[in-house]
Amino acid sequence: MFNKVLIANRGEIAVRAIRACRELGIKTVAIYSEADKNSLHVELADEAICIGPPNPSESYLDIPRIMSALEVSKADAVYPGYGFLSENPKFAEIVERSGAKFIGPPSEVLRKIGDKVYAKKVAKKAGLPLVPGSEDPVDFAEAIRVAQEIGYPVVIKAAAGGGGRGIRIIHNEKELREKFPVAQKEAETAFGDGRLYVEKYIINPKHIEFQVVADEKGNVICLGERECSIQRRHQKLIEESPSTALSEEKRKEICARVADFCKELGYTSIGTLEFLMDEEGNFYFMEMNGRIQVEHPVTEMITGIDLVKAQILAAAGEEVKFGEVRRNGWAIEFRINAEDPDTFMPSPGIIDRLVLPGGPGVRVDTHIYQGYAIPPYYDSLIAKIIVWGRTREEAIARAKRALRETIIEGKNLRTNIEFHLKVLNHKEFIEGKHDITFVDRMMV
Ligand code: ADP
Ligand code: ADP
Ligand code: MG
Predict the structure, then answer these.
(1) Among candidates 16, 15, 6, which has minimal Cα distance to 40?
(2) Atom of ligand 1 nearest to the CA of 381
(3) 286, 437, 440, 441: residue to mutate for ligand 2 pocket, most atoms within 8 A of CB
(4) Which of ligand 2's atoms lies nearest the C-alpha of 228?
(5) Measuring CA to CA, which residue among 168, 145, 167, 158 is closest to residue 195?
(6) Which domains does the chain have, with CATH numbers?
(7) Ligand 2 centroid – CA 278 distance (Å)
């Protein structure tokens, strides 16, 4: 087992990782930027090292600075979280070469799944259904040919994309001609990789993803699904498990193929396979995320399994087994963002008054506290409120109660709590019929 883990992240996920380490008896090292010196993860960790200025490129994304902190602290493993360097195979490889353990899949596996086109090839081999589209990255002429073949609308995506960026919906050839070069340039700038691929645009689908846990001893366990259809700009806002749209039979079928996919890849660690489900109930594999997912708590709430601990144990080479996995009740997560609820623009500021919800079936994962100044440099996620109920109905009632209890106030500070309440009162959501176009339709 590890002696000391360096947490290469910030915010709520850094706090989450410190909690898991502490329960496992592992010491922790926080790294932080100058903007985060008063952050909760810095206070909670056993040690903390300031690694640079607020700008992520000079701190949380700066590999040499993080490696120096690793060396100075003598930590024997690195916890990457989500975002930042969590899916960066170069970083994983540098950590491995240093002799420390990257708490995630091996760097070469991370490299393979980070290439969405490659991941789709492995998925095909494992018998997973794919979104129809190009089998390889395409140039301009091929893009036009493939789009013609599968029919408009299509989406063009960056092979190295992530975080909802690098995705464009294209309705006709004229639009494709206009946007392809722009998208290529953008992918080059944002991901350092201009390769694009084409996919059929699935009409009104649900986003449904499956959580896996795989250790180095060959155990691969699929913990079922999360539905994440409530999204804005391809980024998730509300996630739940189970999904209203899945039968036990379908769940078992996909879980079995998900396990095959992981075995085919040699995947070890926790990870998530993302799918779209169309109106006829057909599933299409989109991508795999080889890291902890923001919405992992909903799976934890219905299975009682600590996914971050499982991730750390798997990285330490331990056997990760849970016996019979029982899914119990319903869990829903709400991402609380410091942002304008109408425009979704970030809204940083100082928290003057904070009341977080509690009571039965309510969990809050956050790094904020009263007096905390939300820095403007990072993601607008400031808390996750997760509720559990024996039924979906109970979970929804509890969610409304918990969100109404929540007070996050400060000058000029706005959050999306009202947005969540609006969703909870919407007929389509209550009936579980919502798809990924729900937020756009609701906002007009
Ligand atoms: P999840 O897939 O866990 O639901 P998201 O797709 O919302 O998570 O992304 C997780 C976090 O990481 C978000 O804060 C998002 O902004 C960030 N993120 C993900 N991928 C990238 C990327 N390639 N570049 C920058 N930020 C990213
Ligand atoms: P990222 O790596 O940024 O998370 P994904 O490939 O997972 O990108 O896609 C993010 C979101 O974009 C999906 O959850 C879905 O809402 C939408 N999306 C992606 N591909 C398609 C598609 N082929 N048809 C319709 N919507 C799509
Ligand atoms: Mg995705």
Answers:
(1) 15
(2) 14
(3) 286
(4) 14
(5) 158
(6) 4-103 (3.40.50.20), 132-200 (3.30.1490.20), 206-442 (3.30.470.20)
(7) 13
Catalytic positions are 291
Segments in 139-213 forming alpha helices (H): 140-150, 173-191
For residue 97, give every residue at least 6 positions away whose Cβ sits within 8 Å of its Cβ, in sequence order, or none: none
Question: Which bound ligand lies closest to the C-alpha atom of 190?
Answer: 1
Q: Which ligand is nearest to the CA of 284?
A: 2
Tell if the pTM clears 0.70, that is, is over it.
yes
pLDDT in tens, the chain (444 residues): 999 999 999 999 999 999 999 999 999 999 999 999 999 999 999 999 999 999 999 999 999 999 999 999 999 999 999 999 999 999 999 999 999 999 999 999 999 999 999 999 999 999 999 999 999 999 999 999 999 999 999 999 999 998 888 899 999 999 999 999 999 999 999 998 999 999 999 999 999 999 999 999 999 999 999 999 999 988 999 999 999 999 999 999 999 999 999 999 999 999 999 999 999 999 999 999 999 999 999 999 999 999 999 999 999 999 999 999 999 999 999 999 999 888 888 898 999 999 999 999 999 999 999 999 999 999 999 999 999 999 999 999 999 999 999 999 999 999 999 999 999 999 999 999 999 999 999 987
Question: Atom 12 in ligand 1: which residue has the minimum CA distance?
Answer: 83
Distance from the alpha carbon of residue 120 to the mean position of ligand 3, in angstroms: 13
CA of residue 238 to ligand 1 center, whole Å = 15
> Number of C-alpha atoms within 13 angstroms, CB side, residue 72?
14
Ligand that comes closest to the CA of residue 113: 2
Residue with CA at minimum distance from ligand 2 atom 2: 162
Ramachandran category for residue 213: left, alpha or beta (phi over 0 → left; psi -120 to 50 → alpha): beta
Residues in the chain: 444
**Beta carbons within 8 Å of 43's beta carbon, 6+ residues apart:** none
Atom of ligand 1 nearest to the CA of 289: 2
CA distances from 148 to 135, 141, 156, 341 (A): 15, 11, 13, 38
**Three-state SS for 314?**
helix
CA of 326 to the centre of ligand 1 (A): 29
Q: Whose CA is nearest to atom 15 of ligand 1?
A: 163
Name residue, tokens 């904020």: 368
83 Cα–ligand 1 center, Å: 5
* Residue from 9, 10, 82 whose mutation best tests the ligand 1 pocket (most atoms within 8 A of CB): 82
